[in-house]
Amino acid sequence: MRLPEWLKTKDRADLHPTKQLLRQHGLTTVCEEARCPNRGACFAKPTAAFMILGSRCTRNCGFCAVTSAAPAAVDSDEPKKVAEASAEMGLRYVVITSVTRDDLSDGGAGHFAETVLAVRRRLPGAKIEVLTPDFRGDAAALATVLGSRPDVFNHNIETAERLYGTVRPGADYRRSLHLLEQAKRIAPAISAKSGFMLGLGERPEEVHQLLLDLRSSGCDIVTIGQYLRPTRNNLPVVEYVKPEIFEELRTAALGMGFHYVASGPLVRSSMNAEEMYAHV
Question: What kind of fold does domain 5-278 have according to CATH?
Fold first, then answer.
C-alpha cells in the first residue's frame, strides 16, 4: 500500500547535533533503533528517549525493528552517561526505556532504578518517565523500578489481545495489564501510561475493549498511533487508519476516564511526553 499523505514526514535526524552528542556518550535511543518517523523533529527540540541495557533484545516482536539477538553485557556506567547527556541537552523531561532482557534475573529493573537515580541527582528538577518491558510479571522487579520514584510509569500494551501471537510473541496481554494494575497499586501517586498501534488487523470492538481494559487497570494516559512497517522483515501494514478515526478514539477514551489521550497517525509513546505529563 502507498503511504498516505498524512503519514509522510521528512527525516532530518542526521543533521542535528543531538545525534552527535548521543554518540559521544555511547548512548542508544529507541527513536533510532525503532526507526521512529518523528526522530528528526524530536532531535531538533532537542529531546530523545534513551534506550538502556544495550541495543539487542531477547524477544522478537513482529512490529519492532530493534535487533533480536544475544545481548551484550550491561554497561555499569550507562546510568551516569544518560544523566550527563540529559544535562548537556538541557532536558526538563527525561524518558528512559530499554530492550527486553529476559536473560537478566531482574529483567534489568535494578539498572532502570540506577539510571533514574543518576538522572535525579544530576537534574533534580527534571521529570522522569520510564517505559519498561513486562519483567515477565515479576512483582519484585516492578517494585525496584517504582522505588526509584519516576514521575511516570509507562508500559505499552501495543495491540489487541487476539493479535499477540504474531505481534508480541513471548509477551502476554493479561500479564501486561496486570503489570499496569500492580504499578498503580504499589505507587498510586505515579502516573500510569500505556500505548498501542492501529493498522495491524485489529477490529473496532477489540480496540474499544483494549481501552476499557487499560482504564480498568488504572492507566491514566494512553497513546494511540499508526503502525508503520520499519523493515521488510517486519509485519506488513494491514490498514492505514484515517485521522478522523483516531480523533473518534480520543473522544471515546476521554469518555472512559483517561486523564490524557494522544491519538493520531504519527503519535508515538514517547513523543511530546513532557506535554502529556503537563496535562495530567
Answer: TIM Barrel (3.20.20)
